[in-house]
Amino acid sequence: MYYLEKYNVIILIPARNEFGTLKKILGNLLKKKFKTLLIDDASDDETRNIRSKRNLIVLRNKNNLGYEETIKKGFNFIKRKKKISHIITFDADGEHRILDLKKLTRFYKFDLVIGKRNKKNRLFENIISYIFFIKFKVYDPLSGLKMYSIRSLKKYNPKKNLYLVDLAVYISKNKKFKSINTEINTKKRKGKPRIGNSINVNIRFLKILNFLIFA
């Protein structure tokens, strides 16, 4: 039995115009009866026609909020639900493998489980991962496949900027919580990067590096 069923874990998928890969992902998740929350970030494609059904809750953003704000919305929605112990974030672009979900859920006693990717898309991501490990003993804070405990999310006071990196720092450096890595294999993502063009991406990575140095 998957720990997703035994320990009430829910899959959170933020999606914007990724119906081609999302359709297959949802089909596989629902076939295995995994609880799933899909948040449609104001998509223009067929994603907007997906409806809630058994084991699938669908929420929609009226406007494009972006990846991190959509994740935050999902966390806030799930935290109000009873009997949910952990949330796993899962990207809609086809990069993650459903087989790797079981790797994360083996560590259900941890508060943050980061799927350490076998390959990263950019040099900056490797640098950020290395610095994060030096400071907090876990790799790859920018991985989209992570598992968070509800108890840690309820204790965290969200910041507007660098939300997910700051959350990873908060959990990893807090002695009350436990963090760990598990190795995952990623596939080449389809479509354009969700974080923008190369200039914007590099500016964001520089902000993250600066933040981590002083975290």
Would you mind describing this structure in some detail?
This protein has about 220 residues and is an alpha/beta fold. It has eight helices and seven strands. A seven-stranded mixed β-sheet has the order 3-2-1-4-6-5-7, with helices on both faces.
Describe the structure in brief.
The chain is α/β, with parallel strands linked by helices. The protein is built from 8 helices and 7 strands, in the order αβαββαβαβαβααβα.
- What general form does the structure show? globular
Structural class: alpha/beta
What value does the Rg take, in angstroms? 16 Å
Query: Order of helices and strands, N to C?
Result: HEHEEHEHEHEHHEH
Termini, distance in Å?
Answer: 39 Å
Counted beta strands = 7
Q: Round the mean pLDDT to the nearest integer and report it.
A: 91
Protein traits:
39% helix, 215 residues, alpha/beta, seven-stranded mixed sheet, 7 strands
